[in-house]
Specification:
The chain is of the alpha+beta class. The chain contains 10 helices and 8 strands.
C-alpha cells in the first residue's frame, strides 16, 4: 500500500485548524468588515454578509462596543469602527514607518517650495505634530515637533475631520480637548467647511493663529479613503525682490507629496 507524504500545504492547514479560536475569528471578521464600510452597517447586514448566526453576532457586537472597538450610531441601529484601533496604531512602530516614509517626501517638498511643512495626526482629542521640515531659506515659519495643535481651528484638524465617516468625525469631536488659544467654532460652520474641503480635496485658508500665513493642507489617505494624517505648509509670501514659488506652485507640490504618501487614490 502506498503512503502519501503530507505536503507543506497540508501541514499549514492542520496547524490552522489546530490553533483556531472561533470567538476571536468572529470578532476579527466583524472588524475587517466594518473597516471597509463608509457609513456603518446594521446588525442584520453584518449577520448576512458574514453568514453567521444572529445571536452570536449580537453577543460579539456587544462585547466590541463595550471594549470601544465599535460604536453605535446615535439612533442605535448601525455599527461602525471607533478610533480605538487607530489610536493603538499610533503607539506601535507603524507610526515610525509613516514618519520614516514621510520625511524624505517632506524634505523634497521643502526644498522645491522653499517653505516649511509639518505632518500631524489625531491623538486623544486634538492633533500631534509628528514630523517637521524647515524650508532652505533664511526666513520661514515652522511648528515645533511634538506640539499639540487645535482640532477645529487649524487646517490640519479640519482636513483630518473632513476625510472621516460621520461616525468617526462625531467621535473625534466628542473627544475633542481644546489646546491653549484654540478658537471656538460653530458646528454648522465646521460642517460647511468639511463639505467644501472634501469637494476640493484639500484646504487653503488664512491661519487662525498667525497673521500673514496661509495654511495649505492635504490629507494622507488610508486604504479606505479616510485621513490618517494631514500634511500642512504654513505658506509665507515674500514681499522683497526675491522671487519664490507662488502659492499655486506650492499647492501643486504639496498635492504631489501627499498623493505619494497616501495609500488610497480616492
Amino acid at each position: 500500500m502506498n503512503r502519501q507524504t503530507p505536503t507543506a500545504v497540508d501541514a499549514e492547514d492542520n496547524d490552522a485548524d489546530r490553533y483556531r479560536a472561533p470567538a476571536l475569528d468572529k470578532g476579527l471578521d466583524i472588524l475587517e468588515l466594518l473597516a471597509e464600510q463608509k457609513s456603518g452597517l446594521t446588525r442584520a447586514e453584518i449577520t448576512k454578509l458574514l453568514g453567521r448566526n444572529a445571536s452570536e453576532m449580537y453577543r460579539m457586537l456587544e462585547r466590541l462596543v463595550a471594549r470601544q472597538y465599535v460604536v453605535r450610531s446615535p439612533e442605535g441601529d448601525r455599527y461602525s469602527l471607533s478610533l480605538k484601533l487607530y489610536a493603538l496604531a499610533h503607539r506601535h512602530p507603524p507610526m515610525n514607518r509613516l514618519i520614516a516614509e514621510a520625511l524624505p517626501a517632506m524634505q523634497r517638498f521643502a526644498d522645491a517650495a522653499e517653505q516649511s511643512v509639518h505632518l500631524a495626526v489625531y491623538d486623544r482629542g486634538n492633533l500631534l505634530v509628528i514630523a517637521q521640515v524647515d524650508g532652505p531659506g533664511a526666513w520661514g515659519i515652522s511648528v515645533r515637533l511634538g506640539s499639540r495643535v487645535g482640532l477645529i481651528d487649524t487646517g490640519s484638524g479640519r482636513v483630518i475631520l473632513a476625510f472621516q465617516t460621520d461616525e468617526q468625525r462625531d467621535h473625534m469631536l466628542a473627544e475633542h480637548t481644546k489646546v491653549k488659544g484654540e478658537l471656538p467654532i460653530d458646528r454648522s460652520v465646521l460642517d460647511a467647511d468639511y463639505r467644501r474641503i472634501r469637494e476640493a480635496g484639500f484646504s487653503k485658508k488664512e491661519s487662525q493663529q498667525t497673521f500673514g500665513i496661509t495654511d495649505v493642507t492635504f490629507p494622507l489617505l488610508g486604504p479606505s479613503g479616510q485621513a490618517i494624517a494631514a500634511l500642512t505648509c504654513p505658506y509665507m509670501r515674500r514681499i522683497d525682490e526675491y522671487v519664490a514659488p507662488s502659492i499655486e506652485e506650492v499647492t501643486s507640490l504639496l498635492r504631489d507629496a501627499a498623493a505619494a504618501l497616501s495609500m488610497s487614490r480616492v
